[in-house]
Amino acid sequence: MLFNSFTFIIFFAVVWGVMRLNFAWRGRKFFLLYASYLFYAAWNPPFVILLWLSTVADFYLARWIGNTPSRGRKRFLISFSLVINLGLLCYFKYGGFILENFIGAMHGLGITIQCARPDIILPAGISFYTFLTLSYTLDVYWGRIKAWDSLLDYGVYVTFFPHLIAGPIIRADYFLPQCAQPRKANSAQLGWGLILFIIGLFCKVVVADDLMSGIVEQVYDARAVPSMLYAWSGTLAFAVQIFCDFSGYSTCAIGAAMMLGFKLPDNFRYPYAALGFSDFWKRWHISLSTWLRDYLYIPLGGNRKGEYRTYANLMITMLLGGLWHGASWMFVFWGGLHGLYLAAEKWITGQGWSQWPGWRHPVARGALMLLTFFMVCLTWVFFRARSMDRAWTLLHAMLDLRAVSLLYVRQFTFVGLVTVVVLALHFYLRERTLEDAWRKMPVWSQGLLLGLMLLGLTLTISGEDHAFIYFQF
Amino acid sequence: MPSSISSSNDRIPPLPYGRILSMALACCLVFAGALTWFENVRKQLPSVGDSHLYWGLHRDKVYSENGRKKVVIVGLSRSQSGLDPRIMADSLQTHDVVMLSLGGVLSQQLVVKDLAEDPRFDGYVLFDTKEQWMLPQDTAAVASYLKYYHQEFSHGGIFEKRINARLKVALQERSVLFSPVSRVYRLIWNKLFLGDPWACSRMRADRSRQIWFADSQQYLAHVLAAPMDHYRSKPEDADTLLFREIPAELNALHRQLKARGGGLILLRMPSSGVIAQYEEEAYPKARYWDAIVKQAQVPAIHFADHAELRGFNCPDYSHLDATDIPEFTRRLSVVLAQVLGEL
Fold first, then answer.
1. Candidate list A163, A285, A325, A426, residue with the active-site label
2. What are phi and psi of B31, to 5 degrees?
3. Contact across the interface for A192 and B193, Cβ inside 8 Å
4. Start-to-end C-alpha separation, chain A
């Protein structure tokens, strides 16, 4: 069930209405749990069983980990949890990929293996809820939190429909305490939650799907060698599309949760205004980057094991972060590029060059922001292109000043204008919050802006329903 | 979770939300009303937007119901914009009609093959084609429709999508505001950059399309100004394919369908003017169509073979005007009924 569907509006209206009734909180939580399973089943009913199994298994494993004093037994149980969760993720998400590469590797050794690629359906949201449940069992194992007593609360935590399919990846100590007390949104939460939902939907449906996706498909899915402007228009369009699509989803999730009285964390903080790559990852998909930091980078040693080990830990974390996005060497390469950027930035910082006072000047900061955006756009080429060949063709075209053609000036101008607006908004909101900026607008302009967004949403009803890009992860 | 992770919930601005949202709704309604008026001035009609899902919903309707077999129209824009499934069903009386044609999507024989290989399908396929379209073309577009259908319609998750599609179509049938012509990208791109040649066209809920060329002289001029040389293009191996492989394929498909009580009927929709001239130059009917039909031993209806189907003009040389669709469909249905009776 997509947020941008009539069925979701009806579904949410019913859920919201029932959650507002004054019956026992336990009963309302049961209802929320069933509603979340129904939400998931709308995609593919049989996979509800997988979600349920994952939930129940990790709940009891964490409980046993928490209750047992034996260090060895704890280690065994956490290993079991890791094997189950990562095993399921590997099978469903990487099964075909692993087999393909195994066959390729054998072929390279001169051994021919004939095997049909298995047709495995990827359960929606498996990457997200697997990381979510893993964070819970690992936190219990490390003693950061106590195992929760209520399976009902834990079930709601895992399956809570606003975040179930595409995040944010919430931590147990952030959400579980919210389940302990009855929750009902007040008028401010209802109002602001609805506004956030509209803004999120506008970003996704109007900007990402209606304005940008067609251009991206034209450039990236074609076979012709593009001109420089054409290649850049496709890449900038994708940069806008993926941000608006994903942050739009997160904003919708936060808004929907708010209207139900629950709190979800920010997942994006104007990443295209980042100054450098570590700043970028503190602003892009925050729940994933903090998960990778806390459960992969730091356990590997972080920056505590010397310079070269730090670079290695960064690369491993980002390579696996890339792989999390999909079963393709393109995503691994994308992650690896970001790892390289982060490592290079760490080295530069280590030389003391970042201490130069000139960096505080607005022009220097602006230039650094644009440079960061430019470098991030280069990585998006690998994220979106269907093959390494196509990626290199586009990259080559983007950097080939001889291939400037006036043929796609209009398209580039249109995409360029939209990109400038997005960058300007990010730059303006970099050190501010959306709430502050919104509050400062006159009430009539808030109404007008929302009205235009609603109009934009109305006009996109006729379009083909695009799933959120991150649904495929 | 690190305490540095913030939440919008902690920063909710104190605002008069009721007033803001009411103003937003009012603004939206005012602009929507203005846009609806504007589209009505441009003579646009409510139109349903097509999609893989919507095509799939119609693909799912091809099976017999209450003992009534279906006639499935497969082809490109000539049939999609030239036939009325409701009129055809009323004329035939014993069969319902499903429109699966896809404008601009080549290699429709893959759809015919999919139906022929579907053990649940026992109806008739009315295949709108011509020699040029029978030759191998890019299959990516049509394959995406078939892949979507077989993937998405094989599990219970399609139930929610059906409801969503029905609600969407209900809105689109009632207001031009929800039509594809009103989409944000089209409005911005066409108005600011390209200049939209007005075209009065629409797709109905049954997936049939109508184009009113008489009301769209600007659009007609724009279409007629486009190059048409590709209508007379002919690959080197065309004859080998058209006289050997393709008739054999068509025959096999017909036999597969006939074994389940259905059949394949080839249909050549009208064309006129310079396009008809180019088509006849590249693939003379007597040499190609008649020979292919004879070799394939498949029933066929060519507009030129029937006096009642010959008199229709195609304003853009390739598609019937919306005003001619009902009469053409009725006349074609009479011919089709005879062919179905003989099968």
1. A325
2. -65, -40
3. no
4. 16
Strand B124-128 and strand B96-99: pairing? unpaired
A462 contact B CB<8A: yes
Amino acid A185: pLDDT = 92
pLDDT at A122 over 90: no
**Residue A369's closest CA among A280, A274, A283, A281?**
A274
**In the beta sheet, which residues pair with residue B210?**
B202
* Contact of B155 with A46, CB cutoff 8 Å: yes
CB contact under 8 A, B184 and A460: yes
Q: Which of B3, B10, B15, B148 to mutate to test the interface with A (most CBs of A within 10 A)?
A: B15
Average of per-residue pLDDT values in chain A: 90
Could B24 and A454 be called an inter-chain contact, meaning their C-beta atoms sit closer than 8 Å? yes
Residue B27 to residue A263, Cβ atoms within 8 A: no
State how far the Cα of B216 lies from the Cα of B26, in Å rounded to an integer.
Answer: 33
| H-state helical runs in chain B | 17-41, 52-59, 77-80, 85-92, 109-116, 131-134, 140-152, 158-174, 184-188, 217-224, 238-240, 246-259, 273-282, 289-296, 307-310, 325-342
**How high is the ipTM of this complex?**
0.85
**Chain B contacts of A188, Cβ < 8 Å?**
12, 14-15, 17
Residue B181 phi/psi, 5-degree rounding, is -65, -25
Distance from CA of B195 to the nearest CA of A (A): 13
- CB < 8 Å from B in window 27-56 of A: 41-46
Q: Indicate the helix (H) or strand (E) that contains A238.
A: helix A228-259
Confirm or reject contact between A216 and chain B (CB < 8 A): no
* CA distances in angstroms from A209 to A188, A432, A457, listed in the order given: 30, 27, 11
Residue-wise pLDDT tens digits, B105-149: 999 999 999 999 999 999 999 999 999 999 988 898 999 999 999
* Whether A254 and B8 lie within 8 Å, measured CB to CB: yes
* pLDDT (tens digit per residue) in B18-63: 999 999 999 999 999 998 888 888 778 899 989 899 999 999 999 9
